[in-house]
Design a protein that fits this description.
This protein is 29% helix and 25% strand. The protein is of the alpha/beta class. It folds into 2 domains: 4-100, Rhodanese-like domain (Oxidized Rhodanese, domain 1), CATH 3.40.250; 105-356 and 366-372, 4-Layer Sandwich (Metallo-beta-lactamase, Chain A). Residues 16-109 form the Rhodanese domain.
Amino acid sequence: MLSFITVEELNRRIQSPGGVFILDVRSASDYLEWHIEDYGVESVNIAGSILQKGIPEGQLPKNREIVVVCAKGKSAQEVTHFLKGKGYAVVYLQGGMEAWSEFYRKVQVTSSAALEMLQVIRPAKGCLSYFLYSQGEALVVDPARHIEEYLELAKAKGVQIRHILDTHLHADHISGGHALSVRTGGKYWIAASEMQGGEIPFEALTDGLVLKFGESSLEVLAIPTPGHTPGSTSFLVNGKFLLSGDTVFVSGLGRPDLGGKAREWAKMLYETVIQRINKLSDDVIVLPAHYSDFREVSKAGYIGATLGELRATNELVRGGEESVFTEAVAGQTGAATPPNYETIVKINRGEVSVGDEEATELEIGPNRCAVKHLA
């Protein structure tokens, strides 16, 4: 009988001191496009068809368990059976990359009498959402469509979700904002400009809006930060945490070309950096909606960095001359767009509805929402 592991067990092994060895048997192009990465991962890509002809010398360890990964777990079973017959210690990942694409892990960002905040990480997509709570009341920012993740957190923490916010209209994954609002009775908030032509009810985010939750009267200030999309919004929590959506990343800034107006929106993004972001202090912690590399994980375990750290390492975050900034940002656009982004945008506006199976297919693949550091 073949042995398998779940995505939860794979994550545990990845985070363990010994790490994990992964044999990805998808095509080379699929592997280069998107594969499992982390500090605890050693990975090799050998297509199943190549393995059947003969195992490349020195590619696979004899003294270490191998986890075989494919798209949905079927091809991996065939390879596992083949390698087991050759004497290798081997298991396959149940559900393959499709299952990995729907796995989440939670990391504590801060814990105090006034505020508890968890970062909900979806490692396969590089998507980040946030669960904040105080004195029995909770707020969720940028929830993914698997809303059970947040409902289970609320139950475990004994809190009521009062507000659900999307920093912008997401293009690479389906938002759980509206669905979570329906399930909990909490208000769903997003900028009105993001939902033009949409069918989903929402509360409009406006500059200077303050949302309070908990007896501590914790304040969340909405700061419109156009650039990635015209209605992109960031949230300043307690004057210390900037939930920056896709405006400021640990690795760079949000790409302004998804609306087909790269140069125009790059100038808007410049104004965001100069007029809004640069007025915040160096010790403000930036917590984005996406990450593109596992090396963006901080020493504390979450994806984020202080503005001071970003300003020291990223020329774009400092702003600089407008013409140089605009040329640099617009010049780096044109890269591959998020898979199926036009359909996903329509779903997130409520113009189109799909079932779970189609939603899974639409979301498979990496995020491509960032403009990287200047070289």
